[in-house]
Amino acid sequence: MTTIRVLLVDDDPLVRAGLSLMLGGAGDIEIVGEAADGTEVEGLVERTRPDVVLMDIRMPSVDGLAATERLRGRAEAPQVVVLTTFHADEQVLRALRAGAAGFVLKDTPPAEIVAAVRRVAAGEPVLSPAVTRQLMRHAAGTGNGTGAAADVRRTRARERLAALNDRESEIAVAVGRGLPNAQIAAELFLSVATVKTHVSRILAKLDLNNRVQIALLAYDAGLLEDGTGDRH
Fold it and tell me: Residue 209: helix, strand or coil by DSSP?
């Protein structure tokens, strides 16, 4: 069994202690370090080589957003999961756009946090189904995605997505809908391996870090059938 190495970053020692106790009880997870501020993160990552960083988004000196941006700019960067008390706000969105693999609420049940760590370590995004739609609406800036800013965002997103071929575009939309590879494969009559290959190509073509960023870009482009945009 492969051990998942986890670094905890939160300015509240009680939160760190709770997470350490919770995750340390899982046989396949090892807590390799703790940090109270974003200033400590890069050094700890260098020394402990974690697979996953659980990152508080609000800290006094260097916040989780800045720390995430720095980490995701590194070669062989660990996956980052943002810890937050808010379902969706601008800082969460900025962290996701910076390359965080997802976020979990601090009051999430312990078993779900453990599952989130395992999913991220396996290369899957972590967006709570209960808040995904709210997050995507917030990403549009307004409830209906209208206005000059939304138009600019949509135009830029579509320009980027134009680099994809038709099949890759279909898969990008499916990723944006939150579908796992197996369901995408079933809907498009492809093998799971083929879907994985297409997702990897999409990430490379668009210079993205993970599936969450594909989903946000598809939403920005208005390609999701959620009432705020059209699908092409």
Answer: coil
Among 111, 125, 117, residue whose Cα is nearest residue 55: 117
Q: Are residues 114 and 156 in the same domain?
A: no
Radius of gyration (C-alpha) of the chain in whole angstroms: 18
16 and 69 together in one domain: yes
- For residue 75, CA distances in Å to 32, 114, 120, 147, 212 come to 20, 26, 18, 38, 19
Q: Taking all residues of the chain, what is their mean pLDDT, rounded to a whole number?
A: 83
CA–CA distance from 115 to each of 8, 36, 110, 193, 212 (Å)? 16, 24, 9, 23, 17
Span 197-202, average pLDDT: 95
- Reported as a single tens digit per residue, the pLDDT across 20-75 is 999 988 989 999 999 998 889 999 999 999 999 999 988 888 888 888 888 887 77
How far apart CA 115 and CA 94 sit, in angstroms, is 24
Chain-centroid distance of CA 20 in Å reads: 22
Tell me the C-alpha distance between 53 and 43, whole Å.
13
Domain hosting residue 166, numbered range: 141-220
DSSP-based three-state secondary structure for 104:
strand
Which residues make beta-bridge pairs with 30?
Answer: 5
CA distance 105 to 222: 27
**How many structural domains does the chain have?**
2
Residue 190 is given by DSSP the state -
What is the per-residue pLDDT across 123-168, written as a single tens digit (0 to 9) for each? 777 765 445 556 666 665 544 455 677 788 889 999 999 999 999 9
DSSP state of 35: E
The identity of residue 149, as a single letter, is A
